[in-house]
Amino acid sequence: MIDHARDLASVRAATERLLTAAATLDNASVTQSSRLPGWSRGHVLAHLSRNADALVNVLRGQPMYPSAEARDADIERAAPRPLDVQLADLRDSAERFQDVGAAPADWSRTVELRNGVTDSASRVPFRRWAEVELHHVDLGIGYELQDLPEEFVQREITFLADRFRGHPDVPYLLIEEDDGRRIPTGGPGDVALVVTGRRADLLGWLAGRRDGSALTVHGGTLPALPPL
Question: Which positions of the chain have pLDDT values less than 70?
Fold first, then answer.
């Protein structure tokens, strides 16, 4: 069972880790490239702020973003801001998300995200947790996939495996973790490829942060995954 209150606490802790780490930067380093192609660290920070507000919209039953174009324009406009402005925006938007999360609500209700994707409201805090943790890694400031909380890594591997389950462009796969746990994903098939490795490497591959070269594949070659 999803515990949205516990996930909200995890979001708060992850946000504080990110804010503390990012506070060691300076204005020049904010303009430098992140690990995401075409995005500076300022883009990543701006995206995190606007994503918090977008998920507030979701929990209020409003469109996540006015449009894809408006989302992209907001990030581009905010990316060059000085570090102190970026951090203040991130902290304020994070508090707005926490405030909405703390309000009485039917957490079993279905909400709509981008591109017509729907989910239980109770899973929105975990989605935010994933944004904060993975984009902290994307900043390239010393926080790595292997530093992510163990609970988060396990849940995010399962979450991403669920997203690719039944996907016509992904072969039938078994994700085998280093403790032997197997998670099925991919499209229909009779014989599965078995992809094994450390949890951090599996998560990195599933989340598009690593190329999968550290993984072992039994029964074929490692497939290319479609973008999330």
Answer: none
